[in-house]
Amino acid sequence: MPKNKKTAKTPYLHYLILIIGLFYGCASIQTPQGGPKDTTPPKVLKMEPKNMMTNFNAKKIVIDFDEYIKLNNEFKEFSISPEQDKAPILKGKLKRLEITLQDSLEKNTTYTLNFGKAITDINESNELKNFTYVFSTGPTLDSLSISGRIKNSLTGEPELDAVVFILPVERDSLFGKKKPSIYTTTDSSGLYKMNNLKKGTYKIYALKEKSGDKIYQQVNDEVGFIKEPIVLDKNLDSVNISVFKELASTFRIIDRRLNTDGSISMNFNQNLIKPEISVIEPANIDAGKKVQFNKGNDSVKVWLNDLSFDSLKVAIKDQGKILETVKFTRGKRDTYTRNITISDNTDNSVLNPNRSLKIEFNLPIDKIDLTKVILLEDSIPRKGITIEKDSSDVLSYNVKYPWKKNEPYILKFEAGSITGIFNSKNKEINKNFKLGSTDEYATLTLNVVVPDTSKNYILQLVNEKKEVVIASRRILKSSSIILANYKPASYYVRIVYDDNKNGVWDTGNVSKGIQPEKIWYASKEFSIRPNFDVREKIEIPPPTP
């Protein structure tokens, strides 16, 4: 009998093993990996009440999407126009967005709910940009629109994701703390369009911002504007705006520090014209200081011969006027480390044959012992090298020698050959380079024709990305400009209409209603090849209105 029972249980045991095997087998199945990345934002499937509805009287709006959503920075991104004292409540859950209206609605009014970039999918955070929901509490919808393009005033390139907004003239407050309720953002071509606008008179602005709060922050943001109010009584297109970085109206030190080598550095929010630095307390420390401003005069580094002070007061001046004084303190046990380093003006260790070799130290140098400086030409020691201090630069020296084309050079500074401030000494430093061939460089000759000899112009050669000025020449009349010995590359030529004749491009000022000086780009990209003399004619057009 026991034997029969055991036999009877055997089939059940087999079934149990089979079921367990299937369970674990199924559990090991995984979602296939790979495939194209999802780049599509959520799509609206249904809206209740429907979008663009008239005679609206609902308290809640429900929007269904084709995928799971989440809300991102909705307090910054979402707005309702006209504004309400009690903002709507947004709630995202699964594939649904619910908007609860807390405040009462005005009669016969068109409302626009702008979600900016607040709605994204839950997996890849793809943004549903410039999504709006519009309704009217009356029988008709406001239907006017404004469209145009936003570009950068310096590069002329379109601005992506610039914020464009309008403010009723009676509430024009660009410098306020509230974000605009009527806005949109630009696409990759810099194009924008604002729809369902009410008839009225507005000021229009564009922001290229960093914070994303749609509030103009002069320190970081670029801004553009139309000076005169626009009267909106019909659809307006080609309302184009150029954004620019505004100069700070009030001088401020944005960063200051006593560095680990004992130097003082400061960064400013303005480009100074004729800057000076003086130590006013203790006054005796001012003598013998060494000062290095950067090219734009918006930062400075100061080295003092005496670091025995507990506290130090420094004055920053421009054109003889004190802008600000700042205090530095140091601990009695503070120690400083000074490692002497060298940079040079070679390009990938190749010296332009039309330029002298220039070296720059990281701190002021008191003495260079030439007996400990060795020049190797193709591994052979050579004499006749001279190193002279640059009279216009605290940190730079010119190295002179009859360099030979394509010969490999090693400029060796033996340990202790350089004596820096506070008797600091260098470790061994080697600079490897060669002299480039004149055949590797090119010349661009531009025959420039000006439209008006009573005006001033500035011709600038800029790099392919239009970000760096390679060369700059003032133009007062039609003439031939020779830009010689430049590295083969692609360049653009741009013209600054120098309205105030000061020789530099001047930016705009919003509060004064001043636009930046206009810039025109020659349509052709200049590709310079080695050992070529490129000649082109540049006819400067009159500035556009």
From TrEMBL:
Entry superkingdom: Bacteria
Transmembrane as UniProt keyword: yes
Record-linked InterPro entries: Carb-bd-like_fold, Ig-like_fold, SbsA_Ig
Positions of the SbsA Ig-like domain: 38-137
Pfam families: Big_5
Record GO terms (molecular function): carbohydrate binding
Keywords, in A-Z order: Membrane, Signal, Transmembrane, Transmembrane helix
Membrane-spanning residues: 12-30
PROSITE patterns referenced in this protein's UniProt entry, alphabetically: PROKAR_LIPOPROTEIN
Transcription in keyword set: no
Name this polypeptide is given: SbsA Ig-like domain-containing protein
Source organism of this protein record: Pedobacter frigiditerrae
Source organism phylogeny: Bacteria, Pseudomonadati, Bacteroidota, Sphingobacteriia, Sphingobacteriales
